[in-house]
Write a structure and sequence with these properties.
This is DUF2231 domain-containing protein. By secondary structure, the chain is mainly α. It has five helices and two strands.
Length: 187
């Protein structure tokens, strides 16, 4: 992907990642820790996690295209290296979200089978269902935290690469020389 409306596509696509990763992480933690939310959100969160996963390589590929068209700096190289660390975290979000949805589906089927057999779900059966849910919740919290920290680090390094030395800490006088960004002017 190259440009959108005259701007490098990376500049626009990163916003999807910056919004989707924390949103997916938050919803994944909520549904993992709160069974009532899991019953309603399991498959929508799994779908959102897959969308999040797809957005990361799109932003990365657009970033690589842009990287070959701007001056290489240490800040840019740091950003590119950190950007490559986002995909495993997004994949982790997707895998855990799909596992949570599958566990929810399995639990529903087990409840239906017990109801059809006329048996109440006894304490032993409930305990067996809680252990995988608790383990998955722990993994969800770790993956969510790691993904949010990583998206923050990548975004911070990108902002530093784009803006360091490109603005004045004090306002310029009226009619002062404009700060150049190196991007072509958009009519």
């Amino acid at each position: 992907m190259t440009t959108v409306a005259g701007l490098p596509a990376h500049i626009l696509l990163v916003h999807a990642v910056v919004v989707l990763v924390p949103l997916t992480a938050l919803l994944l933690v909520v549904e993992s820790l709160w069974p009532a939310a899991r019953r309603r959100l399991a498959w929508p969160v799994a779908a959102l996690a897959v969308l999040t996963l797809v957005s990361v390589p799109l932003a990365t590929e657009a970033g690589e295209w842009l990287e070959h068209r701007i001056a290489s700096t240490p800040l840019l190289r740091t950003h590119a290296e950190l950007g490559d660390t986002m995909l495993p975290w997004a994949a982790g979000l997707a895998v855990v979200a799909v596992l949570v949805a599958a566990l929810q589906q399995w639990s529903r089927r087990a409840e239906r089978r017990a109801a059809e057999a006329g048996a109440a779900a006894g304490p032993e059966r409930r305990r067996r269902g809680r252990l995988p849910a608790a383990a998955l919740a722990l993994v969800a919290v770790v993956v969510a935290a790691g993904s949010v920290v990583t998206v923050y680090r990548v975004g911070d390094s990108g902002a530093r690469a784009a803006w360091t030395g490109q603005f004045s800490a004090t306002p310029l006088p009226r009619g002062g020389a404009p700060v150049t960004t190196g991007l072509p002017e958009h009519p």
